[in-house]
Amino acid sequence: NQRIDIFGVPVDAVDFPRALETVGKLLEGDHAGFIAAVNPEKIMRARDDVRLLEALNSAKLLIPDGIGVVWAARWLGLGRLSRVAGADLMPAICEIGAAQGRKVFLYGASPDVNGKVARILPERYPGLRVVGHQHGYVREPDMPKLVADINASQAEILFVALGSPRQELWMRRYVPELAVKVCQGVGGSFDVIAG
Ligand code: UDP
Q: Under the GO molecular function aspect, what terms does this record hold (predicted)?
């Protein structure tokens, strides 16, 4: 995918089908990759936060999340991007996962919300196998256990809902230790799914 630069912050020039194609390739491959959404807020923050910028740079896929990013790219003469919302990509990944009988782990949000999402997803996407879930308030000393749990679950897809920039920093730090194939940072999506 072509990676462009908006005010020093990377974003991939993908449309929705192309983003899904990249997800498909990650699911076929052996190297864990993570997906982050780039929105105007994150662009502004990453300009002042080198750790967030580094995290974004190590993502396999950076989706242009929102019309603000599309406009910025056009205004900068970087061509026409099309909007790929993280909130739309997650359900699409769940559909692929359901069709392929993939194993999913859900990390993030409050214990209540996390548990609800673990119940709701397999109902909404029959075939999707939620093999583990963990709320988003794990303390640093307990991270090795979380990593071990995710790997023991044999999850292939991991959704991380810690909000930003927490989830991007987490994915940069821990995805290299994980045996998952695809990891997506989904912000507040678990709260939306839990209703
Ligand atoms: N969250 C979490 N762990 C944390 C902080 C936040 O799991 O240490 C979850 C929170 O429960 C919510 C999501 O991250 O589901 C987004 O949180 P918030 O709106 O506070 O973050 P923002 O998106 O505003 O950065």
A: N-acetylglucosaminyldiphosphoundecaprenol N-acetyl-beta-D-mannosaminyltransferase activity
pLDDT at residue 135 tops 90 = yes
- 164 pLDDT more than 90: yes
* Model pTM score: 0.97
Please tell me the distance from the alpha carbon of residue 33 to that of residue 93, in angstroms, as a whole number. 14
153: CATH: 3.40.50
Atom of ligand 1 nearest to the CA of 113: 15
Q: From the CB of 164, is ligand 1 less than 6 Å away?
A: yes
CA of 189 to the centre of ligand 1 (A): 10
Does any ligand 1 atom lie closer than 6 A to the CB of residue 190?
Answer: yes
Q: Is the pLDDT of residue 1 over 90?
A: no
In angstroms, the CA 147 to CA 142 distance is 9
- For 89, the domain range is 3-194
**ipTM greater than cut 0.90:** yes
